[in-house]
């Protein structure tokens, strides 16, 4: 089985470098352009199933990249709920919540942002969605359109990469060949489609 992990295209919040985890933003003009570019690149790729986060920016991106295909949306593929950091930038967070935000950046498994989803719950939700997707499709190619955090978790689980070290730009693509419960990251030229 091959997983094609795709981060949604750019939004206004991404452009401003804000945390927009569960905030339901749509794509901006660049995000729509990234979808068109990726659609052209993938027009010959045989995809057996398409799954997406149920947030507008991901679901719309999936429908634009794979026109005419059924896109199965699930809340399990949503980005983390960043609580008080929703809508804030790194600088805003350091100014408003220096201790809580600093602790969370240092060790998100042990520290929780106020009113945010716990890292353990986030991991459990995303990895349950991944398990369901893998179980439903033993062979073939499956596209998963999601967000930076869930994609990092999936890569980390399948190929044991560094969570924070995995770069996931808007419209970025990662391919994972998945066999016997283990994944192998396949190099992709031009990972971002901006």
Defining traits:
2 domains, 194 residues, 6-stranded mixed beta sheet, alpha/beta
Helix-strand blueprint:
Elements (H helix, E strand, L loop, with lengths): L1 E6 L4 H4 L13 H14 L6 E5 L2 H10 L5 E4 L15 H7 L1 H9 L12 H18 L4 E6 L1 H12 L13 E7 L2 E5 L8
Parallel strand pairs: 1-4, 2-3, 2-4
Antiparallel strand pairs: 1-5, 5-6
Explain this structure to me?
This protein is an alpha/beta fold. The protein has two domains: 2-81 and 117-186, Phosphoglycerate mutase-like (Rossmann fold, 3-Layer(aba) Sandwich), CATH 3.40.50.1240; 84-116, no CATH class. Helix content is 38%, strand content 17%.
Short structural description:
The protein has 194 residues and is an alpha/beta fold.
Report helical residue fraction: 25-40%
Biggest sheet strand line-up: 3-2-4-1-5-6
Number of strands: 6
CATH topology of the largest domain: Rossmann fold
The level-1 CATH class of the largest domain: Alpha Beta
**Form type:** globular
The proportion of residues in beta strands is 15-25%
The radius of gyration computed from the alpha-carbon positions, rounded to a whole number of angstroms, is: 16 Å
Low-confidence stretches: none
Q: Could you tell me the mean pLDDT?
A: 91
Class of secondary structure makeup: alpha/beta
Order of H and E elements: EHHEHEHHHEHEE
Tally of helical runs: 7
CATH architecture of the largest domain: 3-Layer(aba) Sandwich
The CATH superfamily of the largest domain turns out to be Phosphoglycerate mutase-like
- Number of folding domains? 2
Taking the sheet with the most strands, its summary is: 6 strands, mixed
| Span of the ends, CA to CA | 27 Å
């Amino acid at each position: 089985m091959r997983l094609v992990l795709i981060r949604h295209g750019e939004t206004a919040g991404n452009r401003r470098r804000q945390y927009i985890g569960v905030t339901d933003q749509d794509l901006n003009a660049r995000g729509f352009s990234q979808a068109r570019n990726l659609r052209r690149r993938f027009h010959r790729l045989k995809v057996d199933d398409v799954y997406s986060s149920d947030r507008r920016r991901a679901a719309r991106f999936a429908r634009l990249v794979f026109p005419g295909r059924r896109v199965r949306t699930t809340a399990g593929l949503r980005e983390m709920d960043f609580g008080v950091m929703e809508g804030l930038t790194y600088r805003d967070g350091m100014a408003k919540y220096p201790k809580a935000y600093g602790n969370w950046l240092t060790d998100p498994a042990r520290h929780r942002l106020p009113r945010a989803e716990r890292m353990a719950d986030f991991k459990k939700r995303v990895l349950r969605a991944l398990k369901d997707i893998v179980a439903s499709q033993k062979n073939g190619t499956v596209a998963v359109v999601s967000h930076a955090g869930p994609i990092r978790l999936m890569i980390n689980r399948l190929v044991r990469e560094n969570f924070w070290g995995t770069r996931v730009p808007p419209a970025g693509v990662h391919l994972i060949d998945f066999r016997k419960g283990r994944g192998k990251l396949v190099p992709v030229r031009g990972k971002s489609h901006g």
